[in-house]
Design a protein that fits this description.
14 helices, five-stranded parallel β-sheet, alpha/beta
Length: about 280
């Protein structure tokens, strides 16, 4: 929608061009401001704002704003909204949530389904042959590794998760052909994770990286699930990369469960029965 407005700029009247530039400068604000405020910001009359919307092919301002709000919410482009020290709590909530949603939608639109299929197939094959599945991460990514272990355990798939660098290197040394490790890192530059990936791969294990495109870890592993979110280091910056990694693990776990299918059902039923009995007696 914004591309179409940009392409239409030369054919618009000068006053309508000012309205168009106002949309392009801040689409979110335009979608929520009243016509009086929009006209004042663009230095045009209220009828000019309505005329612009109709020239774009919409019934009027209300129809245009509805479509614009929906388009922005879909979040096809990544929209970074920095948190400022003078933001109100309501502003902070909106900005933090918007950053997360935008990152998720950017991932949805850019993700390689073939890489996800490869990773799901490797983990499913490892489980079916009784080999080892391990999750490694450092710092915040270590939390994601533990979450991955929990998610897969709920599917009846046992695995190891560790955020300790020495443990990762030692554990990778014990991996062999048929085993599988998933290494999670936002930067993809952590030395211990790189060493673990190198050792495991040389020993014949399948290595899967959840990290940024172009990072050293992405090149070191056989399967790369790109998680491209540049984390800000400002004190107010929302920590979206960890949420993105959790989302990718969720997608991966679901794909693995679908691949394994009926073979998991008896174990899951028994697990639920045991939990239910413990919880309510």
């Amino acid at each position: 929608m914004l591309d179409r407005i940009t392409a239409s700029l030369p054919s618009l009247a000068p006053a309508e061009q000012r309205v168009a530039r106002l949309v392009l400068a801040d689409a979110r604000a335009f979608a929520h401001l009243p016509v009086r405020e929009l006209a004042a910001r663009a230095h045009v009359s209220k009828p000019t704002v309505v005329r612009f919307c109709r020239s774009m092919g919409y019934d009027g301002l209300a129809d245009f704003k509805l479509k614009l709000a929906g388009s922005v919410s879909e979040g096809v482009p990544f929209i970074h909204r920095s948190v400022d020290s003078d933001d109100k709590t309501s502003d902070v909530m909106v900005k933090v949530v918007d950053n997360a949603v935008a990152a998720f939608l950017q991932y949805r639109n850019a993700a390689s389904t073939s890489a996800i299929e490869q990773a799901a197939g490797a983990i499913a094959a490892t489980w079916q042959t009784g080999k080892r599945i391990e999750f490694y991460g450092a710092g915040n990514s270590g939390i994601v590794a533990l979450d991955a272990q929990h998610k897969f355990f709920r599917l009846g798939i046992t695995s190891l998760a560790t955020s300790d660098g020495h443990m990762q290197v030692m554990s990778a040394t014990l991996l062999g052909k048929g085993d599988c490790i998933v290494i999670i890192s936002n930067s993809g530059r952590t030395r211990d994770l790189m060493d673990a990936a190198d050792i495991a791969r040389k020993n014949g294990a399948t290595t899967i990286a959840i990290t940024a495109s172009g990072s050293p870890l992405a090149s070191a592993c056989q399967i790369h699930l790109a998680a491209d979110h540049p984390e800000g280091y400002d004190r107010y910056s929302p920590m979206v990369s960890r949420l993105l990694h959790l989302l990718i693990i969720d997608v991966l776990a679901t794909c693995v469960a679908l691949r394994i299918g009926p073979a998991l059902q008896p174990a899951l039923e028994q697990m639920k029965n045991n939990l239910r009995a413990k919880r309510y007696t």
